[in-house]
UniProtKB/TrEMBL annotation:
Keywords: Methyltransferase, Transferase. One of its GO terms (biological process) is methylation. The keyword Protein biosynthesis does not apply. Residues 277-319 form the PG-1098 ferredoxin-like domain. Residues 320-390 form the THUMP-like domain. InterPro entries: PG_1098_Fer (IPR054168), SAM-dependent_MTases_sf (IPR029063), Thump-like (IPR041497). GO terms for molecular function: methyltransferase activity. Pfam families: PG_1098_Fer, Thump_like. This is SAM-dependent methyltransferase. Transmembrane segments: none annotated. The keyword Transcription does not apply.
């Protein structure tokens, strides 16, 4: 860890230039001969990326950043803060500590948190940063997590783990066994140290694939930030054998949209031709696959078994986007020419053969504006276009 960058003049320079173009700065002469110019430029770039994602770090003095990649790959504060509300206890060990954002928030819920990070320099950086952040109940272990678990030899309330994909797994179907640590292989060992494991995975992991590799899954959490799925969490309790609940959360600026359902419970959705209002579920629900459950839970109608759009005559509160349907047209040459040729509109396709790009090109539809057009299939298998206005 390069502590010379904590020189006040260097820190002031980093703060003053955060957000500036490091490409342009790189052409200047290094004003600080005692520190490599590349190191300073990396701090500037990483701090700039932290401004929105990690505001607590950004606003705290004397923070050291390990590099922009670590900042890009770490949890955002918003998802970390939400995650910390999902579990509780006295002790937690994080087997893949990284930049420590999750542990910062876990430390506010647990009496003691252990941060394991095999990269010794990163471990030292996080320890330093936690001192600046005034976190005193976190201990740091710069070693392989298996060694740490064996050496500490204690029972933990929770084990938290965020396995990373091995480089040789690129291009393959994403499976947990292709990650480091190999969680499915290590699960029995973890259960010697705890009864509760929380596994964070990348959002592209298929839920059914995760379930095929894991056992004793109690809850699956899908977390989206501003309608972009960021994390998939598998909550595991040793010897658990009951129903699996899927819990979705879409973290927005002014609210959090939540929805949950029991996986595999038989649901009987209702179907209807387009009514007065249209509903599009948020990305966390789309990832969950709970499409029939949305219909039964909110008592709204699906347009088609595979369309995943919903409709009703009465406007309801809904975890996703809401629209008022102004017109329904068939996807035919005459209707498209009359209504949308050379127009400006926001286009979405759901259960429709043509792509957005193809539709735009074919009908010369410009992007943007206040019009929202959904190209989809109705319950009678007709290709239709819903011309809508968004409800805020």
């Amino acid at each position: 860890m390069n502590t010379s960058i904590l020189n006040k003049n260097i820190q002031d320079f980093i703060t003053q230039n955060s957000g500036a173009s490091t490409t342009k700065l790189a052409l200047q002469k290094n004003p600080f001969s005692e520190v490599d110019w590349i190191v300073i430029l990396n701090q500037i770039e990483a701090k700039g990326k932290a401004k929105e994602k990690l505001p607590t770090w950004f606003l705290t003095e004397n923070i050291i950043y390990p590099g922009k990649i670590s900042v890009e790959q770490t949890s955002s504060e918003k998802t970390a803060a939400y995650k910390a509300t999902l579990i509780s206890g006295k002790t937690l060990i994080d087997l893949t500590g990284g930049f420590g954002v999750d542990d910062y928030y876990f430390s506010k819920k647990f009496n003691a948190v252990a941060h394991c990070e095999i990269n010794k320099e990163l471990s030292a950086i996080v320890k330093h940063n936690f001192e600046q952040l005034q976190i005193t109940n976190c201990s740091f272990y710069a070693d392989d997590s298996t060694n740490v678990l064996n050496e500490l030899n204690q029972k933990w309330d929770w084990i938290y783990i965020d396995p990373s994909r091995r480089n040789d797994a690129k291009g393959k179907v994403f499976m947990l066994k292709d990650c480091l640590p190999n969680v499915p292989e290590s699960l029995d060992f973890y259960f010697e140290k705890t009864d509760s494991v929380l596994i964070k995975t990348a959002p592209l992991l298929d839920i059914s694939a995760g379930l095929s590799e894991l056992k004793f899954v109690k809850n699956i959490h899908i977390i989206a930030l501003e309608n972009e799925v960021k994390e998939l969490l598998f909550e595991i309790q040793n010897h658990y054998s009951g129903e699996i609940t899927i819990k979705t959360a879409n973290l927005l600026k002014d609210k959090t949209e939540t929805f949950e359902f029991i996986l595999g419970e038989l649901e009987y959705p209702s179907f209807h031709l387009p009514q007065k209002f249209l509903y599009e579920p948020n990305s966390a629900i789309m990832k969950s696959g709970g499409f029939d459950e949305v219909s039964t839970s909110f008592q709204i109608n699906k347009l088609h078994k595979h369309s995943h759009l919903y409709t009703s005559d009465e406007l309801i509160s809904f975890p996703g986007r809401r629209f008022e349907i102004e017109k329904v047209i068939s996807y035919s040459k005459s209707d498209m020419k009359a209504e949308l040729l050379n127009q400006q509109a926001n286009i979405t396709t759901r259960n429709f053969p043509d792509t957005v790009e193809t539709i735009r090109k074919k009908w010369k539809i410009k992007n943007g504006g206040n019009l929202y057009c959904f190209f989809t299939t109705d319950k009678n298998d007709n290709k239709i276009v819903l011309i809508c206005r968004k409800i805020t």
